[in-house]
Design goal:
The protein is globular and about 60 Å long. It has 341 residues and is of the alpha/beta class. The chain has a six-stranded mixed β-sheet with strand order 6-3-2-1-14-13, sandwiched between helices. Helix 3 packs parallel to helix 4. The protein has helices at residues 7-14, 129-132, 138-149, 165-177, 191-196, 214-222, 236-244, 269-275, 289-301, 320-328, and strands at 2-5, 32-35, 51-54, 92-93, 99-100, 120-122, 157-161, 181-186, 202-205, 228-231, 252-255, 278-281, 311-316, 334-338.
Length: 341
Amino acid sequence: MAREITALEENHTWTLEPLPPGCFPRILGHEAIGLVESVGDGVRDFAEGDMVIPIFIPDCAECIDCTSKKSNICSKFPFSHTPWMHDGTSRFTDLKGETLYHFIFVSSFTEYTVVHVANVTKVETSIPPNRACLLSCGVSTGVGAAWKSANVEAGSTVAIFGVGSIGLAVAEGARLCGAKRIIGIDVNPEKFEIGKAFGITDFVDSRSSGDKRVSEIINEMTGGGADYCFECVGKASLVEEAFACCRKGWGKTIVLGVDKPGAQLTFKSFDVLHLGKTISGSLFGGLKPKSDIPILIKRYMNKELELDKFVTHEVRFEEINKAFDLLIEGKSLRCVIWMDK
């Protein structure tokens, strides 16, 4: 089984910070691939031996949202940062019989986990597991934001605030959609060289903008603003900057970053009404796991979606602390963790 390590887990849950609510002991991990060991009563669509990707956002395939093309936010099993299964209980205990907490319905840093049928997507066994696991959250979220949430058009201009792994996935998605110009905005100028492999054509170092706001620079570069702006950091101020430099009339601002609880956005009512811009959130990139993940897998197998360039390191499960160190030091995009049964 393969898993990957991500910034959300390290920065907040692993350090027991209040976003998401910290609790201990907890089994982390939410991006993975594995084989079904057994199924519970009433499970019809999965069988022992199936290769599956667990995904934190539920897809019950039954509620009004899951059966609609307009939403991927399940009503039957709402997503939350809960430490429990959907029924409010845990399936994990330690050797003393005491509760171990779950992590956003997946908990993949373990040899065996228990996942609700709504949080599992069946995949073909032909895809390499150390690439398929990337589609469990981060890469899918970024690619999906460009593909599904924004519906980026060929020949368009895209601005990405935050060129981490999610921002790079947005760039990859925009590249696949045929965007002509992809502008990366980050505080680290070294990200430009990395970003070129993902389709980034221009770069703005936000720390070297002088007295100008980044939005002013983007507006000047694009002659009035980007067609699509993506906020991938999780800061209200950057969402506002992204909104300020998306083009009037049809510009779209897509929010992917996870901000602190209670953070608020401030816009002038005049700008919203008179400039005709839109802003929307993009949970899991707007993707429907059970139907859209197989499409991404097919695009990877057809050598369109380039997953390989996201993986910078691979380690055994015994080296998981090394994976966390690489994450903290900013030396890794995606680190795949191998676990033998």
